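Sequence in, structure out. First:
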Amino acid sequence: MSTVQISASDVNKLRQQTGAGMMDCKKALTETNGDFEAAIDYLRKKGAKVAASRQDRESNEGVVIARTSEDGKRGVIIELNCETDFVAKNAEFIAFGNAIANSAVESKPKSIDELGQLMIDTEVSRVSIADAILDKTGKIGEKIGISKYEVVEGEKVIAYIHGNFRLAVLVALSANVAGAEEGGKDVAMQIAAMHPIAIDKDGVDATTIQRELEIAKEQIRAEGKPEEMVEKIAAGKLNKFYKDSTLLNQEFVKDPSKNVAQFLSSIDKGLTVTAFKRIALGA
């Protein structure tokens, strides 16, 4: 037990530096004989212990954040999870997610593991994102972690966040032309609302196509249609699937008289989508 007298001002100073609770700060200083650096390490170790003890907990709440680079040619989406909606709505937790996303845009990590090694500024010092997550875990007392990290690159990348950080979209356009920013946001909102599975029918994998054809054939046979008509009707149903489920072929939500491909061409002839990502919280 420490023989050093721990003053209220010392506790408050550590609390201001780390954001940890008053009792946690007092205990950390007591256990480390008033050594501030050691007390910070003590609190971080507490975070690791909390994280280890909560590995079996579900962390399905959190925030999904999209960011683009200054030149607009690269975007990232991160999903930062916690256990409760109360924490997910906390301004400090949202700011932490924004800091991670900003770091990812700047430093271009290739994976979640690489993202965790990036350095960010915290209340205490400049630490790795992985260590900052441990610090937050110790402070908040919930399991926290990054579950998704996606990157989109292109001539013009637009980010869109929907529903209080519950869903985020990145969409890359083929050219950075007048109207691309506003039009790209409309397309991103389309992706958020309509959840396309691919840009066009060429992007739909063979397994999905085969499954849709088999489902269609079973439906047609159940309706009692002649066997010689099954293939033709199934092909028509597959085309309807492409129209409903691939982005460029979907009816444009803001103007159903045209599809998304036609909407983009109205901005600039030949303008199209080259990539997109849609991440929904917990999905």
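Second:
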Amino acid sequence: MNTGENRWNTSFVREFSDALDEVELDDGPGALVTSSTDEKFFSNGLDLDWVKNPEKYPQSGDKEIFGEEFMYLMGRMITLPVPTICAINGHAFGAGFMLSLSHDVRVMREDRGFICANEIQLGMKIPRPELALFRHKIPANSFFETVQLSKRWTGPEALNAGIVQAVGSIDELQEMALRKAEELAPLAADRKNFGAHKEMLYGENAAINLNHGPAHMLKNSKEFDV
């Protein structure tokens, strides 16, 4: 992700989706590491300038279809048939936080940057599919603080809260993520099985809550109101 703050619009969603197409063309053992080239930002959330004035930014894509396509992408990430590791090198707000949570493992910079679901601060409701993702990825004792109180978690706080699995310095982060990817890659030797297992945990037929699993809700966001 190399567009500075890596804010989300329809064009960004489609480029990210194209990258996942490349991942899925491969077969056998493998893992995906997602990171940003900007040391301050992993992803600063929704492209608010574009949302407020889409005609001024035609290169950013059709605003009307953004919500459905973005939610579907998050559902696709949460069920990707390889282990996924997110290296959160800086701020991850809103949609950027969602992207990090859609990964299997998160490693976060320990000395700078926050993760936060800031919809309440922006006067927005959190859509139900997004809430489902948070509910299944964030421990119960931290869920309320995250979604209702818009708590900004530092790396060490997020580690203690069980939201990320490890923290490290900016110089260590990429190597930590790559080591974890190498460790987990053999689990995807049979990608069909690995993906099916994710679907069982988080997908349409998730035993924990039937068709209200986050993958189903994200991929079918039009079925759910906010």
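Remark: The radius of gyration is 17 Å.
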